[in-house]
Write a sequence for this structure.
């Protein structure tokens, strides 16, 4: 069956210019080559009907102030034009200015992206600013209120730590640290009450939720039993399982065994992580996913059904494509 890829990056020229002028990605990852033709080639090879594009970290935060806001707008306008040129084949999650710079500018970009450019959702990174504000921080409440009012889909992608020193030259932060960053922000969203208060927002966690499925029970009991949180373990786990989880770099059988038991039914979605994951790596994970035995209904949900629920315009045969 044809897939819907909810974790597929693009690299427009304004971002390349910002990357080069700012000294590169603090995570230590190198900017890969990308073209829309390379996206379409991968989609054809892996029977992907639709790819939802997003700007990976550090995104607009690679700049500051008005320059960052301008970059987010340029990226979003470019993405919207691509989608208009290829209806049904492409969607996009809008980029936002840094959340810690000017929240009014952030809210304005949310409105413009969703109302004018018709973005399919919003990209947020796991943390913002040198003060290490994860997504449950009180300063971000107005943003979550607006996203909840709209019933928006939010794609959460990890970003670099405040400490950008590498443990090992062979371990830039996306290798190991990124999944843990996703876990940190997910638990922060749970403990802060954001998940329970903003139930209309649908949040997709990258990379199978990082280590959240593995650590959720540990965190649920420890935070409650040490009186660090009043959220009882059952409520914590209910919130943790309410996220959506993409399979970027996570289609292996060990991860699939745990994730399908952990997540709510219909909350696991296909993702490739192209082009930041080399094509060879994407190919290997797609092959493992294809060989993993699932009930037909679950296989359909993972390949496209869960995404169709989040993004009805991409349903097969939908005239609104």
């Amino acid at each position: 069956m044809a897939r819907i890829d909810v974790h597929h990056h693009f690299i427009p020229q304004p971002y390349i210019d910002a990357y080069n002028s700012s000294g590169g990605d603090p995570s230590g990852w190198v900017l890969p080559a990308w073209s829309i033709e390379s996206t379409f080639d991968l989609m054809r090879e892996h029977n992907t009907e639709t790819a939802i594009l997003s700007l990976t970290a550090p995104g607009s935060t690679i700049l500051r102030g008005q320059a960052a806001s301008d970059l987010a707008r340029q990226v979003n306008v470019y993405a919207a034009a691509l989608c208009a040129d290829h209806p049904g084949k492409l969607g996009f999650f809008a980029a936002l200015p840094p959340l810690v710079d000017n929240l009014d500018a952030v809210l304005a970009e949310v409105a413009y992206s969703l109302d004018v450019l018709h973005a399919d959702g919003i990209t947020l990174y796991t943390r913002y600013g040198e003060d290490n504000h994860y997504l449950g921080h009180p300063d971000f409440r107005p943003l979550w209120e607006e996203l909840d009012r709209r019933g928006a889909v939010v794609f959460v992608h990890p970003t670099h730590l405040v400490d950008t020193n590498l443990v090992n030259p062979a371990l830039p932060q996306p290798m190991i640290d990124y999944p843990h960053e996703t876990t940190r922000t997910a638990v922060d969203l749970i403990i802060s009450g954001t998940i329970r208060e903003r139930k209309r927002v649908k949040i997709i966690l990258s990379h199978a939720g990082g280590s959240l499925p593995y650590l959720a029970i540990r965190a649920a009991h420890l935070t409650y039993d040490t009186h660090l949180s009043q959220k009882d373990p059952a409520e914590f786990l209910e919130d943790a399982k309410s996220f959506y989880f993409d399979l970027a770099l996570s289609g292996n059988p060990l991860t699939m065994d745990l994730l399908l038991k952990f997540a709510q039914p219909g909350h696991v979605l296909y993702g490739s992580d192209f082009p930041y994951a080399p094509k060879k790596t994407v190919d290997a994970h797609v092959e493992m996913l294809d060989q993993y035995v699932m009930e037909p209904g679950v296989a359909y949900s993972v390949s496209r059904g869960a995404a169709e629920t989040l993004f009805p315009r991409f349903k097969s045969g939908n005239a609104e494509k």
About this structure: Residues 3-314 form a domain with the TIM Barrel fold (CATH 3.20.20.140). The CA atoms of residues 218 and 266 lie 24 Å apart.
